[in-house]
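Reopening: structure tokens for the farnesyl diphosphate complex, inputs below.
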Amino acid sequence: MLSAVERKIEQFVIELDDKEVRSLYAKLPVGKRLRAKLILRIAGSSLPVVKTAAIVEMIHAASLLHDDVIDDAYMRRNKPSLNALYGNKTAIMLGDILYSKGFFELNNISLDVAKLISNAVTQLSLGELKDVSLSKAFNPDKDAYMKMIYQKTASLIEASAGAAALLAGKPKVVFMTYGRNLGLAFQMIDDLLDITQDSATLGKPAMHDFVEGKTTLPYIYLYEVLDASGKEKLRSMHGRVLRDEELNWLKASFETHQILVKCYAQATELIDEAVELMNAQGEEALSEIAMEMIDREF
Ligand code: FPP
Ligand code: MG
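Re-run output (same inputs, fresh job):
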């Protein structure tokens, strides 16, 4: 039923009655549609559900358009990003158009769904701001990282699950906890894949988070176990392009201290908790989505 969501997004875009926007939207690569999948699996495929899924995907697409401008990213899903093709102004405005149309349509669903989703978009924006400010210097603070990824990524997934539960008459809090765990694990895995995968698989440059200044969880854990000179070395590598020798030192240090295994285990723990919650509700299909989250390569 994902195709119904695709058609709904297209319809919303056509309603904008603007040729340029239609052709720009057509250039956006379609992503994994994780949030839409989640909403449909929780709530079925009635019209309000399909609309909600379409709205959430439009908001998500808008956030990535803005994020690529903020991160100066020129590749997304193995293609040049929209800002790379048409410049920052166009990418920002297309983001604004998609998310404001999404917000307009949200008013037609229900007040409770609108509140949940719009509050998550505020969190998303606060999270992105925090990501930018944390990137200005090496960040050894795990709690600050966890709060940031909750806001930047998990909040919209949590709200998607909550909105779907509301639409389906299912218990909202349980589904929101499930969505929150999924979202946190998703971002933790994303941050691991940046280290373990090559650029072709990722569809964007590999080992790039730290270059961008992002001290993700593996770097925080590595910092915790390094001795004083190792700590100094890691700090000195923050926020710049690394030489081969430095990259090799990083990879060897992650290996020696079993850092990636530790991060993966932590993400798996969150997924196990989510799976248990859903199994207890008799929602095995949702356990599958949760497991797909940690078994992915990009
Ligand atoms: C990707 O993070 C970014 C996000 C998940 C959220 C970005 C949110 C905003 C820019 C706020 C948007 C606000 C509105 C109103 C739409 P990442 O850079 O870690 O992931 P990436 O490697 O895929 O780029
Ligand atoms: Mg980014």
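The chain has a mean pLDDT of 96. Residues 100 and 157 are 19 Å apart (CA to CA). Marking as resolved unless the reporter disagrees.
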